[in-house]
Amino acid sequence: MEQKKKLNVKLDEKVGEGVYSNFFMITNSISEFIIDFGKIVPGLPSAKINSRIITTPQHAKQLL
Predict the structure, then answer these.
(1) Looking at residue 4, what is its pLDDT?
(2) CA 50, CA 30: separation in Å to the nearest integer?
(3) DSSP characters for 9-60?
(4) Rounded to an integer, what distance in angstroms lies between the CA atom of residue 59 and that of residue 63?
(5) How do residues 23-46 score in pLDDT, each as one tens digit?
(6) Which residues does 59 contact at the CB level (< 8 Å), separation at least 6?
(7) Residue 34 to residue 37: CA distance in whole angstroms
(8) Arithmetic mean of pLDDT, 3-7
């Protein structure tokens, strides 16, 4: 029988507060996926990106 290993995850207090996002955009290449999170304000012509996650295609598939 396979034993499950425990994974200790630490969450920094500032990261734990989170960041509001009402916009995201995904771009990719053969080797990576880039996921940008941001905020759109009604009436303004642009969005501000607050966070960017860069990951492998395998991890992006797990997220899906």
Answers:
(1) 82
(2) 25
(3) ----HHHHH----SEEEEEE-SS-EEEEEEEE-TT-S-EEEEEEEEE-HHHH
(4) 6
(5) 999 999 999 999 999 999 999 999
(6) 33
(7) 10
(8) 85
